[in-house]
UniProtKB/TrEMBL annotation:
Taxonomic classification: Bacteria, Bacillati, Actinomycetota, Actinomycetes, Propionibacteriales
InterPro entries named in the record: 6-hairpin_glycosidase_sf, Terpenoid_cyclase/PrenylTrfase
Protein name (database record): Uncharacterized protein
Domain of life: Bacteria
One of the GO BP terms on file: carbohydrate metabolic process
Length: 754
């Protein structure tokens, strides 16, 4: 039997008593073929192909739906179970053979490991050989509370020594967490079921794509499937306007954690964290207080922001350029003492060590004398944000001078390969061998390219180009997104750690952000399209990590957030707003709506773990910590439970700075008149947009619902006429010039749209 549309075809065939099926592109190239299953009968009903049979624990039905158009097929398995169930899977082999590209949302390095539901942030697996591409995608709308007992899983076996034709599977497989970050299946985990219906669904997407980048089309499909309707229908998991979160977060920080300092460079200060030292403030790649200060300024505290900036500029800088990145203060003999440390790592925190045995037993973090090393990634990312502050927030020549001195050092430190070592010995400024050639180079290259934009010194641009070439040749082809976090985080994996089953390196998303920033900065510095194209490849790969659903087995909402990477189970990681900035920056350069939509989704998820009453509807832990503080992730060990929080900067400061930057550029509601695209950004949804030559009409809903009148800043890019009439909810706001619209028009809005 056969069903098809203009892009895909499903065909059944008999193998003994079994009915198998295969999915092919419209031109007949078979991409996916089912393996032995329980199906023994088949029939067609309309556009549905129905297979039925008996499993060892009861009867089952597979309903296959081929849409009228589209390169995907939908499958639904329904079974009546009576017995002990440990797995019920739909298994396929990738017919084209050994893969050139694979993606699974979580790695499974041991034979008994499983890509369990806790690791399925993006619930999809992708495989490609030459142009033939396949994605296996969980239908999240069919996932219920039942998944708390009957766990879902993705299967991938892509090791060519094990299977010349890779295996992909999806369905029910009961698992347990193991070794901090992984999950395994055992038959004795089976669940006793008596007369219960069990269901799950999935999509198979197939395509004829450009080699090695077919994932980009899958990213589009996933967003169309899960994201586009959601982002325009609800603000959740954002439960209040961003200024409410800012009020709560900054009140907690200023009232409880703030330290004022007087020093020669001007009044300084900051929010104390106590990560590794009693009262410390970090200017590091994740916990970056300078970046947080952009949020302070954006939400009405310019004096505090200025004090943080002055503190960053007071960091002791070696005459050659590198500088210390961690400030700490203590009281000794009734005197306050201030000191700076070259670098450190959060895994050295006594609190973290007490919680995680892996730090005591196996983590390499304790083998490094951090205080004797400059960490170029931290220095580069801090000076990168100094330069963005100078360009986008407030011009300050002190920032460029500080960054320029450090940039000259990076030029000298660059290796012949173009890589920039991550660690430099403080005593003689020679490079440490560990992590001397890795994706951390991107952070330094991003800073150098942006520095060239400010200073015009060619040496900085030449070094940035060489670094980009190193990344293009050594990171992008194999997706080796491995930085210091892979080596030193709680998972403690050796550099080069590779999962042969999924054919993936252990990856973190942080290096992708640095690389996107590098390519964006090079594009802005040179105007060369190839750099923007490269940025797009990395942005789309990063898209594969975005959480596109709210799993019913978790007690917090997660849509829009991001994880650490592919080897850490936590959801809603505090880096989410940092990644949002990468998407927003890419939208600013490409004007492709999906990237701003993904950025807004990430921002809406960035403070779901804040301890505030408004979050009661989206988080079961809304009262589990000091009001205004926030955790840095959830379900960090593969269980539905609270994880941990170390720092104001991660996530609260990071979130407020990312929100401030997006709102500065795009307002509370944004319209691109040329593309007929509109989106609500803060506290509102845009339901209707009508663009005429000299007129733009918007229908805007405030949410959460309020009787209070709210002043919304509406930004409109690319209006068709020099003068445009703007109406909101049927009310004429006025006639505005292009310049006024691109700057933003303040519109009072109350209640629901007319």
């Amino acid at each position: 039997m056969e069903l098809e549309n203009d892009q895909v075809r499903v065909t059944t065939r008999r193998a003994g008593d079994s009915v198998l099926h295969e999915v092919a592109t419209r031109d007949g190239n078979v991409v996916a073929e089912s393996l032995d299953g329980p199906w023994t009968t088949e029939r067609i009903e309309g556009r549905n192909l129905i297979l039925e049979g008996e499993t060892p624990v009861g009867p089952a039905r597979l309903t296959i739906v081929v849409p009228a158009t589209g390169s995907w097929v939908h499958f639904r398995v329904d079974a009546e179970i009576s017995g002990r169930l440990d797995e019920l899977l739909a298994l396929y082999q990738f017919v084209p053979g050994t893969a050139d590209f694979t993606f699974a949302p979580h790695i499974r390095p041991a034979d008994d490991h499983v890509v369990a539901q806790w690791g399925m942030k993006t619930p999809a697996a992708i495989i490609q050989k030459d142009r033939a591409t396949m994605a296996l995608v969980l239908d999240t709308e069919l996932v219920t509370e039942q998944s708390r007992r009957l766990h879902l899983a993705l299967e991938m076996e892509a090791d060519p020594l094990v299977r010349p034709q890779p295996l992909l599977g999806i369905g029910i497989k009961v698992t347990e967490p193991v070794e901090l970050n992984y999950f395994r299946h055992r038959e004795d985990l089976a669940v006793d079921i008596r007369g219960e219906r069990v269901s799950f669904g999935y999509y198979i997407w197939v395509g004829d794509e450009e080699p090695a980048v077919g994932y980009r089309s899958v990213a589009r499909f996933l967003w169309q499937l899960f994201g586009q309707k959601r982002i325009t229908r609800t603000l959740a998991p954002q439960a209040a306007r961003f200024d409410r979160y800012a009020d709560e977060g900054l009140t907690y920080a200023f009232d409880n954690l703030w330290l004022d300092l007087d020093q020669p460079g001007g009044p300084a200060g900051g929010v104390l964290n106590g990560i590794c030292y009693a009262n410390d403030i970090w200017f590091q790649s994740l916990f970056n207080h300078l970046r947080s200060a952009i949020g302070m300024r954006g939400f009405g505290h310019p004096d505090a922001a200025s004090r943080v900036k002055n503190l960053a500029l007071s960091a002791p800088q070696h005459p050659a350029g590198p500088f210390k990145t961690i400030f700490h203060s203590s009281i000794r003999q009734a005197r306050r003492e201030k000191d700076w440390v070259t670098s450190s790592h959060w895994m050295l925190s006594p609190g973290v060590e007490n919680k995680m045995r892996s730090v005591r037993r196996q983590n390499l973090v304790k083998l490094i004398d951090w205080e004797s090393l400059y960490h170029t990634v931290d220095c580069s990312w801090t000076t990168y944000w100094m330069l963005r502050w100078h360009q986008e927030v407030e011009a300050d020549e002190r920032l460029t001078a500080f960054a320029s001195n450090y940039g000259d050092f990076l030029v000298d430190a660059q290796t012949r390969s173009g890589a920039i070592p991550s660690f430099i010995r403080a005593d003689d400024l020679t490079p440490e061998v560990l992590l001397s050639h890795n994706v951390g180079t991107s952070a330094s290259a991003a800073m150098l390219a942006r520095l060239y934009m400010v200073t015009g010194q060619k040496a900085h641009l030449v070094a940035a180009r060489r670094a980009a070439r190193f990344i293009e040749e050594n990171v992008l082809p194999t997706r080796r997104w491995q930085d210091y976090e892979v080596v030193f985080d709680s998972g403690a994996k050796p550099l080069g750690f590779f999962d042969h089953h999924t054919q993936q390196y252990a990856q973190t998303t942080q290096g992708m952000v640095w690389t996107i920033a590098m390519f964006h900065s090079l594009y802005e510095a040179t105007g060369e399209q190839r750099f923007l194209d490269r940025a797009g490849e990395v942005v789309d790969y990063l898209s594969l990590f975005q959480q596109l659903w709210d799993p019913p087995f978790l007690s917090v909402q997660t849509f829009g957030g991001f994880p650490v990477g592919n080897s850490h189970p936590s959801w809603n990681d505090a880096r989410t707003p940092l990644l949002a900035t990468a998407f927003a920056d890419h939208f600013a350069l490409t004007h492709e709506p999906e990237y701003l939509q993904r950025a807004i989704a990430a921002l809406r998820a960035s403070l779901v773990l804040m301890f505030v009453p408004e979050n009661a509807a989206v988080s079961a832990i809304f009262e589990a910590g000091p009001r205004g503080h926030a955790d840095e992730g959830y379900a960090g060990r593969g269980r539905d439970e609270q994880f941990t929080g170390l720092s104001f900067d991660f996530p609260v400061g990071a979130a407020l700075s990312s929100i401030a930057l997006v709102k500065q550029r795009h307002g509370d509601a944004y319209v691109d008149a040329t593309r007929n695209f509109a989106i609500g950004i803060d506290g509102c949804l845009v339901h209707d947009l009508k663009v005429q030559n000299d007129r733009v009409d918007l229908s805007v809903e405030l949410t959460p619902s309020t009787e209070q009148e709210i002043d919304l800043r509406v930004v409109i890019d690319n209006p068709r006429d020099a003068q445009t009439l703007l109406t909101v909810n049927g009310n004429e706001v006025g006639v505005f010039s292009r310049a006024q619209l691109s700057t933003g028009v303040h519109v009072p809005v109350k209640g629901c749209p007319q």
